[in-house]
């Protein structure tokens, strides 16, 4: 190379900073096989200078050391390179660097903002002078390397225009952060070959216009008919409607059978009517305050979900818009979970049969952590769905916050997607053809590479956060522009009129026809079709009460047969020594040599469920082994780390079972499993917390979906939460699963809250959740120390009945007539009470366990307490502090259960701001005191 070429090379930003490692990787590949790297890089490396006589094909470290030395010297002190073939070669290198610069940074000069408010910083890499090129070189012809324009050479002037059209027009593509060369070349081919703007036929253009007319017409109709009512208008982001319709149609043409959409409230009503085909008259009645349904309390109209079928070139596609509360991004993992269930039902391992679409807000996607959690799950075994098409309605303002430095710390709201190397297509929403182009490109990328892809629909918000807000108060400059800015429908109609694609009278007719359809109240989506067999059948579970009869019994012989199968593993499969001992003990339990512990009974429950043909999906941070080393459903070969799950080998026609150790997330994973359970009613779907306390990281899911989804939306869900709970002196974050929070949310028989205390109880409880034709969430305060407690054991005969007892009676043979004190409790504290009573021979105190706290078992407890109606002293004993646990939430039920003459007192820890103490000595003192208080005795101090 000539000296000037070498200097220019080193001045290029692409050889510095964060790109150094990337270039080293390319160079290493070049050393192994020059044909494996792109032509432009091969040409650069071919011209590298020799290093003190050493050939370039030898040691890479010598060349790398030279690079470091030159970088340290700086531009002024760099050594001269040996001369190359001349100035033309040097400029050829610069041309290739120019192409690379546009691929890397062209998006920063793209025309993305419809309002023209974005003030992009100058990017010198995109200027000819930065590459020692000028307009004087425009007529010179250069090789374009891998630039996929369909030509090997081009005049620089023509190339420069092409680069600007491709990367600086209405589409700003970010994809050079992707490390996979195949994916980058795939994207380059599709962007550069059409300069980011393919030619659409007349039918497609008319369809786009009709979508814009529908989007605009819907909002104007609502605005005039219901002035001032909240509707969270789509106006400014109108392109979303033709975008979604085009995406669904393209998905159907490519084999999709279902599409599941998740979105917050912005534009939701428009999507409901103009994409899913909800009858406008129904929506108008909702605005008028009319109520069509009799189930539940309902929700505001812009949270509502909907389902329909949609005609596509590949056949009808089932559409589902997920219900979503105002917690914005929380719906995303719910949608992904629902999609995973649908894929499993269709046996679609590559994700092709079901497409997830998540629609985000620009402030929300950058600000809410569940987005990161969901991205992090996207390529994991237990949560992947073959990629999600993610769309941001980027109206450049949050509620009232519009300054970028106040909403995020990065240039784009979509930068979070780079964590999974998703390509990001920024697109000007006022250019609906560019929008449709990137939509089709995004779907094809997702289907090809089975990965997430992001579309940043840069638009604006014509009104305030809602239609009653006054946006000028906080965004005066933006809304001065908005008021003068034509709506997308008008802009695109003018474009088509100029192109002579359509006549003005045709435009007018399309507008009037849509308005007439709204007046008529009929469906306005031509592609709408009545739903057929796409959706899973929930009818067996609708309207079922808690008392619906069911039979979950199994013979002892059947249990032994299942038990032996869950203890089998391949010959030569070496277990870790403690696991091997556990499995030998488990086999002894099955053979009747000893009673069953918790882990054995739990595994038998799962075996019986899959043997009957039902599916089990079980996730949590340690679910395969069990946090407390008790489950070991997934075995690990100590020789080669291979895994084996005996539960997958119960019978030839068994139901599938999946147990995954999840990513370290509560919120997104629980939301995913909620979505899964709402789409697969026949399955036993379980999420387990590592410690029950950690479920509070998913409180939004518990509050907005699990506890109230049925009442708000009529949405049934059979998700089971296993929340390890019990006071063993492990401190504030490892004791309490916050039982009181779940009980506070209990009403309308919305969920079950159980505290099983024996292996037979957990076996029956898990089976009941599948066998009983009733689907509501099951919240389990599951144990820790009871997993190995010598008294927490059960016989095969006890399991055989399959009956879960809501209340467990006194187990010792006490003379009921001599009992003058009854202690009611739940969970582990029972065994502490039992031990103390036996040790001190307190035969006047009966201990009753309430195993299901909600729905409260009034009838069952009356039967158990029938022999104690003479008792005056009644106690509720709990390990939790007085302001926590069951005491405050359930006290009215306890009072209703005891005789009118009885007196109810509390025995437990004093009220506390923290769920538990951190000092083991203080924990032991508190535990001893509450047991003594409950039994009304004082044990001597040692």
From TrEMBL:
Signal peptide: none annotated. SMART domains: Transket_pyr. The lineage of its organism: Bacteria, Pseudomonadati, Pseudomonadota, Gammaproteobacteria, Alteromonadales. It holds the Pfam family Transket_pyr. E1 component of the 2-oxoglutarate dehydrogenase (OGDH) complex which catalyzes the decarboxylation of 2-oxoglutarate, the first step in the conversion of 2-oxoglutarate to succinyl-CoA and CO(2). Transmembrane segments: none annotated. It is an enzyme of class 1 (oxidoreductase). Coiled coil: none annotated. This is 2-oxoglutarate dehydrogenase E1 component. GO terms for molecular function: oxoglutarate dehydrogenase (succinyl-transferring) activity; thiamine pyrophosphate binding. Its EC number is 1.2.4.2.
């Amino acid at each position: 190379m000539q000296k000037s070429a070498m200097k220019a090379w080193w001045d290029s930003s692409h050889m510095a900073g964060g790109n150094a490692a990337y270039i080293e990787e390319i160079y290493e590949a070049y050393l192994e096989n020059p044909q494996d790297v792109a032509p432009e890089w091969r040409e650069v490396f071919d011209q590298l200078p020799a290093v003190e006589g050493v050939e370039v094909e030898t040691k890479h470290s010598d060349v790398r050391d030279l690079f470091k030395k030159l970088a340290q010297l700086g531009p002024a002190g760099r050594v001269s390179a040996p001369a190359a073939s001349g100035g033309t070669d040097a400029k050829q290198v610069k041309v290739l660097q120019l192409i690379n610069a546009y691929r890397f940074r062209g998006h920063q000069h793209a025309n993305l903002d419809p309002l023209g408010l974005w003030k992009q910083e100058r990017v010198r890499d995109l200027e000819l002078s930065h590459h020692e090129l000028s307009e004087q070189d425009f007529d010179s012809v250069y090789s374009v390397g891998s630039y996929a324009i369909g030509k090997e050479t081009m005049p620089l002037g023509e190339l420069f225009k092409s680069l600007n059209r491709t990367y600086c027009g209405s589409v700003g593509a970010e994809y050079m952060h992707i490390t996979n060369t195949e994916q980058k070349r795939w994207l380059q081919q599709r962007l550069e070959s059409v300069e980011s703007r393919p030619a659409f036929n007349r039918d497609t253009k008319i369809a786009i216009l009709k979508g814009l007319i529908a989007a605009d017409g819907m909002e104007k109709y609502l605005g005039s008919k219901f002035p001032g009512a909240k509707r969270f208008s789509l106006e400014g982001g109108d392109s979303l409607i033709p975008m979604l319709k085009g995406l669904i149609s393209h998905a159907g043409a490519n084999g999709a059978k279902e599409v599941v959409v998740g979105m917050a409230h912005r534009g939701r009503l428009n999507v409901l009517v103009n994409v899913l085909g909800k009858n406008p008259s129904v929506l108008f009645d909702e605005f008028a305050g009319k109520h069509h349904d009799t189930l539940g309390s309902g929700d505001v109209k812009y949270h509502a979900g909907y389902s329909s079928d949609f005609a596509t070139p590949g056949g009808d596609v089932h559409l589902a818009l997920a219900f979503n509360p105002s917690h914005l991004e929380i719906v995303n993992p719910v949608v992904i979970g629902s999609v995973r269930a649908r894929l499993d039902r269709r046996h679609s391992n590559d994700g092709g049969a079901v497409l997830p679409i998540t629609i985000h807000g620009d402030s929300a996607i950058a600000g809410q952590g569940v987005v990161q959690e969901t991205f992090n799950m996207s390529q994991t075994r237990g949560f992947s769905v073959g990629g999600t098409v993610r769309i941001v309605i980027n109206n450049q303002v949050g509620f009232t916050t519009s300054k970028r430095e106040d909403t995020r710390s990065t240039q784009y709201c979509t930068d979070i997607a780079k964590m999974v190397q998703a390509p990001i297509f920024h697109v000007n929403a006022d250019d609906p053809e560019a929008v449709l182009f990137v939509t089709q490109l995004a779907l094809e990328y997702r289907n090809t590479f089975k990965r997430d892809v992001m579309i940043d629909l840069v638009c604006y918000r014509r009104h305030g956060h809602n239609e009653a807000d006054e946006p000028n108060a906080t965004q005066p400059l933006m809304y001065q522009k908005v008021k003068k800015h034509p709506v997308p429908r008008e802009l695109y109609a003018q474009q088509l009129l100029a192109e002579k694609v359509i006549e003005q009278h045709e435009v007018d007719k399309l507008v009037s026809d849509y308005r007439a359809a709204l007046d008529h109240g009929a469906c306005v989506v031509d592609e709408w079709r009545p739903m057929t067999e796409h959706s899973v059948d929930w009818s067996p579970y609708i309207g079922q009460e808690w008392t619906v009869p069911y039979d979950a019994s199994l013979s002892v012989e059947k249990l032994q047969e299942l038990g032996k199968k869950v203890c089998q593993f391949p010959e030569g499969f070496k277990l870790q020594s403690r696991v091997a001992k556990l499995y030998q003990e488990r086999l002894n339990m099955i053979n009747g040599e000893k009673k069953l512990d918790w882990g054995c009974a739990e595994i038998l429950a799962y075996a019986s469920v899959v043997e009957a043909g039902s599916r089990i999906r079980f996730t949590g941070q340690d679910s395969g082994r069990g946090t407390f080393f008790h489950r070991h459903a997934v075995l690990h070969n100590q020789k080669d780390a291979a895994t084996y799950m005996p539960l997958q080998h119960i019978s030839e026609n068994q139901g599938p079972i999946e147990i995954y150790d999840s990513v370290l997330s509560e919120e997104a994973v629980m939301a995913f499993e909620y979505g899964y359970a709402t789409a697969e009613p026949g399955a036993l779907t379980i999420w387990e917390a590592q410690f029950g306390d950690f479920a509070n990281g998913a409180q939004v899911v518990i509050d907005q979906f699990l506890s109230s989804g049925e009442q708000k939306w009529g949405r049934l869900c059979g998700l089971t939460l296993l929340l390890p709970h019990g006071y063993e002196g492990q401190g504030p974050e490892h004791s309490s699963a916050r039982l009181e929070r779940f009980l506070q949310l209990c009403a309308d028989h919305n969920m079950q809250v159980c505290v099983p205390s024996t292996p037979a109880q957990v076996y029956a409880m898990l089976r009941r959740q599948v066998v009983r034709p009733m689907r509501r969430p099951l919240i389990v305060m599951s144990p820790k120390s009871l997993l190995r407690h010598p008294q927490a054991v059960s016989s095969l005969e006890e399991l055989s009945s399959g009956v879960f007892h809501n209340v467990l009676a006194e187990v010792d043979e006490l003379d009921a007539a001599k009992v003058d004190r009854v202690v009611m409790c739940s969970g582990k504290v029972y065994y502490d009470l039992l031990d103390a009573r036996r040790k001190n021979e307190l035969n006047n105190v009966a201990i009753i366990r309430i195993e299901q706290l909600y729905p409260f078992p009034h009838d069952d407890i009356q039967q158990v307490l029938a022999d104690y109606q003479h008792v005056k002293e009644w106690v509720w004993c709990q390990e939790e502090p007085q302001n926590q646990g069951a005491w405050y939430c359930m006290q009215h039920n306890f009072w209703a259960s005891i005789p009118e003459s009885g007196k109810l007192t509390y025995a437990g820890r004093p009220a506390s701001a923290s769920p538990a103490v951190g000092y083991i000595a203080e924990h032991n003192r508190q535990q001893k005191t509450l047991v003594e208080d409950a039994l009304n005795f004082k044990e001597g101090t040692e």
